[in-house]
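Input (structure):
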């Protein structure tokens, strides 16, 4: 997975302090197109920088010659001081001259490297692959490159992959952390918790990704915690800043026994079902309810697979009475509808796992101004 960066390009890569300015000679890229790392975006007039580089090369040659002479003088002084031919003060003078010449050579070489970088930065190339924005300046304009006054030429945004930042209830964030612990992972990034996404003009959440980050604190004002999902974007259909509907598992996959929610009856604080038992005799059965999936309710306790539940005509079915049942298979249309319904509510649940749907703001993984 490549790095994701949003950068603002500036002349000489934003590091040139000495050059300070330059004229745009060429801008051979198409605005709004995909550019690749290393592509030439702008060319700044290199002649002033080339002249400065030549000057620094001459200064290095001069400093090197001075350093060579000072080194030779110091070598002779070492032999003369051993023979006690010269005074110690003369020896100290030649030694200091040699050190000064060596330092001057280092400074000249450093200045030469700076000039070489300034010349190199007259060709502004894309540091990453992504979609380039419009030109902020055109050919013939004078641009600055000094610190604090640099001219922004354009912006490149990496678009594959993209991050979606979502604020979820703290209870959901805790479940994601529990999933990571169950898989013996230190954090959610290693657990590969799946998530999916759809844009406003899409259905059935076609984009698949994973949760790779849970923030380290809960917002005490809202009781939510930020998580981040990462999605591949090879077709570049997703654009930075879009709002999208995301779906995130709130539990691991599990088998659920589903019945129409309309079959659930209430007696004070107790939930019960009317079951057609042996010899078609009605039984009242207390049950424990689970999550709601569309119009179907999961039953966690009190009902076994294969048992017959009364849905219609419950007013005529009394406990202990004998009935003539008309068996009808449970419809799953509500489950299918949930897969394509994106406007029903901020919370959606879809088997075989509970899922949370939230609006997500697509963002790059990191922002680096260069």
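Output (sequence):
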């Amino acid at each position: 997975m490549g790095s994701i960066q949003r950068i603002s390009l500036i002349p000489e890569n934003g590091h040139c302090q000495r050059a300070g300015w330059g004229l745009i000679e060429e801008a051979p890229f198409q605005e709004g197109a995909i550019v690749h790392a290393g592509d030439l975006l702008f060319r700044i007039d290199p002649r002033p920088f080339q002249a400065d580089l030549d000057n620094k090369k001459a200064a290095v040659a001069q400093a090197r010659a001075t350093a060579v002479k000072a080194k030779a003088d110091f070598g002779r002084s070492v032999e003369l001081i051993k023979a006690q031919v010269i005074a110690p003060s003369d020896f100290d003078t030649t030694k200091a001259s040699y050190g000064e010449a060596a330092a001057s050579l280092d400074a000249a070489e450093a200045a030469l490297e700076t000039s070489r970088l300034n010349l190199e930065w007259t060709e502004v190339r894309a540091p990453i692959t992504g979609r380039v924005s419009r030109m902020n300046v055109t050919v013939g304009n004078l641009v600055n490159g000094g610190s604090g006054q640099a001219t922004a030429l354009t912006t490149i945004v990496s678009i594959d992959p993209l991050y979606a930042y979502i604020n979820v209830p703290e209870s959901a964030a805790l479940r994601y952390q529990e999933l990571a612990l169950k898989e013996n992972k230190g954090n959610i990034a290693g657990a590969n918790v799946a998530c999916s996404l759809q844009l406003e003009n899409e259905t059935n959440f076609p984009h698949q990704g994973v949760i790779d980050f849970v923030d380290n604190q809960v917002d005490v004002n809202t009781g939510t915690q930020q998580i981040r999902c990462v999605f591949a974007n090879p077709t570049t259909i997703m654009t930075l800043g879009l709002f999208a509907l995301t779906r995130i598992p709130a539990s691991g996959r599990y088998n659920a026994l589903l019945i129409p929610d309309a079959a659930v009856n209430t007696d004070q604080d107790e939930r019960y079902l009317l079951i057609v038992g042996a010899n078609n005799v009605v039984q009242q059965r207390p049950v424990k309810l689970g999550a709601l999936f569309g119009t179907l309710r999961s039953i966690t306790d009190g009902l076994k697979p294969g048992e017959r539940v009364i849905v219609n005509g419950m007013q005529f079915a009394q406990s202990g009475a004998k009935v003539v049942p008309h068996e009808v298979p449970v419809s799953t249309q509500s489950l299918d509808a949930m897969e394509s319904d994106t406007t029903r509510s901020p919370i959606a649940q879809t088997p075989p796992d509970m899922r949370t749907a939230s609006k997500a703001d697509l963002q790059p993984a990191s922002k680096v101004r260069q």
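Notes: The helical segments are 47-82, 88-120, 170-182, 333-340. The first strand starts at residue 5 and ends at 9.
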